[in-house]
Amino acid sequence: MAAQNIGLIGLAVMGENLVLNMENHGFSVAVFNRTTSKVDDFLDARAKGKNIKGCYSIAELSDSLEKPRKVMLMIKAGKPVDDFIELLIPHLDPGDIVIDGGNSYFADSIRRAHDLQEKGFLFIGTGVSGGEEGALRGPSIMPGGSVEAWPQVQPIFQAIAAKVDDGSPCCQWVGSDGAGHFVKMVHNGIEYGDMQMICEAYALMDKGLGMSADEMHAVFAEWNRGELDSYLIEITRDIMAKKEAATGTPMIDLILDTAGQKGTGKWTSQQALDLGVPAMTIAEAVFARTMSAIKAERLAASRQLPGPPAKFDGPGSEVVEMIRRALYASKICSYAQGFQLMRAAAQAYGWELNFGEIALMWREGCIIRAQFLGKIKAAFDKNPRLANLLLDPYFKQAIDKSQDAWRRVIANAVRAGIPVPAFSSALAYYDSYRSERLPANLLQAQRDYFGAHTYERVDKPRGEFYHTNWTGRSGTTASTTYNI
User: Fold this and answer.
1) Using CA of residue 138, residue 143, residue 148, residue 149, what is the dihedral sign?
2) CA dist., res. 30 & res. 118, Å (int)
3) What is the pLDDT of residues 280-332, one digit of tens each?
């Protein structure tokens, strides 16, 4: 048998589907799984009759591959990836390529890229988004790492990736060491924001307007034909239509209101804090999940803590349109925060990120795929140095068109006692970003008062720092810690 084009370790759902996707596009694949019975199960079922070679040891996998070898790991992030890399190294030659396609933390990818390079090997850490269906039919792929490895894997990755209308693949080289996994992390953080904002729109229609699941199904179906056209709106439409077969009860009404998370939204929020980027909407989406998790406490509190009737005033159709506008405006702000974070990371980690290409990579195949991303790509293609999406003419106009409804929806939600943390934080971000003067002057005065942390003055050049002896007792010594 001829040498296989690529090897893949890890035959869980994503691994299996990526292998089938590669084979469907004409590439031969060798596969291995630590539990070797999974290899037999795969070969006897979905891989039967296909150009896929089952291997029962890492040595056999290595011997099956053309050189330079390309070995893709689709396994649990963290220590398992390091363990498998250590097992692989004795069976690799200099110039061979290790690919981590899992949801690894970008800092781990930075470390692995440097460690492998020192040993003569190449590394790619790539985000893969799209879930089970995307992996099989065309995911969004975000590769970063050793740039010398890219020509070797580019034909495979771009063949199996999702395509936009003109045939461009949703896969381009992102940048060095951990850039690919960082971009995937931000994708997931934005995904958290998108999902929470859709949930808030649902809560406003459900609690505030008393709409049925069928009525909301019709609303989401209509929204999916306009500027909110996206995968997440599409699946929300379908969720609203699903009934339990035995009772006819909408499934959405039978699901307990506690949400899980795998940690990528938390990573995004932590990086925003580390890099000093105001990504508050993404963070609020993470906190909303943690709030949902304390169900027993909320249930007890609901019986003790008073609040207003959760009802909106006004014609339902008008309120629904206001909610749609609020959702779109909030979405713009959430994405603006995500791209701001990537810009800060590019500066901090020395990456040359192409934001237009990143928007293209997210246009199809991934969980946040949406018509809206075409507008983001156009904005960055027109101005690659755009500081913030809010400053692009299209998005400025979209916010201006929506902000009255956005403000009214949030005000109504507050009056009705319906929590909308993502909508509210997105508006706070917008109002803060457009503010010539924020109350941080008082905050810095407070810091100088109790900690001699100094301040700058409006009547002096930036970069000059001053301290006031506020009490007349503290002296003139100032702290050197002005900024984080």
Assistant:
1) negative
2) 27
3) 999 999 999 999 999 999 999 999 999 998 888 767 789 999 999 999 999 99
- Tokens representing 362 are 């997210």
Is 227's pLDDT higher than 60?
yes
CA dist., res. 305 & res. 85, Å (int): 54
3-state SS record for the chain: CCCECEEEECCCHHHHHHHHHHHHCCCCEEEECCCCHHHHHHHHCCCCCCCEEECCCHHHHHHCECCCCEEEECCCCCHHHHHHHHHHHHHCCCCCEEEECCCCCHHHHHHHHHHHHHCCCEEEEEEEECHHHHHHHCCEEEEEECHHHHHHHHHHHHHHCCECCCCCECECCCEECCHHHHHHHHHHHHHHHHHHHHHHHHHHHHHHCCCCHHHHHHHHHHHCCCCCCEHHHHHHHHHHHCECCCCCCEHHHHCCCCCCCCCHHHHHHHHHHHHCCCCHHHHHHHHHHHHHHCHHHHHHHHCCCCCCCCCCCCCHHHHHHHHHHHHHHHHHHHHHHHHHHHHHHHHHHCCCCCHHHHHHHCCCCCCCCECHHHHHHHHHHHCCCCCCHHHCHHHHHHHHHHHHHHHHHHHHHHHHCCCCHHHHHHHHHHHHHCCCCCCHHHHHHHHHHHHCCCECCCCCCCCCCECCCCCCCCCCCCCCCCCC
Phi, psi of 479, deg, nearest 5:
-75, 155
Return the closest-CA partner of residue 362 out of 127, 89, 17.
127
> Global pTM?
0.93
For residue 347, what are the contacts with CB-CB under 8 A and spacing of at least 6?
Answer: none
Active-site residue identified among 16, 191, 200, 364: 191
Q: Characterize the bridge pairing of strands 140-145 and 52-54.
A: unpaired
Query: Which residues, 6+ apart, have CB-to-CB distance to 133 below 8 Å?
Result: none
| Residues 73, 147: Cα–Cα separation, whole Å | 18
Give yes or no: 191 in active site: yes
Confirm if 74 and 34 have CB atoms less than 8 A apart.
no
The Cα–Cα gap between 192 and 197 comes to 9
Q: Which of 38, 70, 184, 331 is catalytic?
A: 184
pLDDT tens digits, one per residue of 255-278: 999 988 877 889 999 999 999 999
Amino acid type, 435: S
Structure confidence by residue, pLDDT tens digits, 355-403: 999 999 999 999 898 989 999 999 999 999 999 999 999 999 999 999 9
Q: Is 243 a catalytic residue?
A: no
Please answer whether residues 324 and 197 qualify as being in contact, where contact means their C-beta atoms are separated by less than 8 angstroms: no
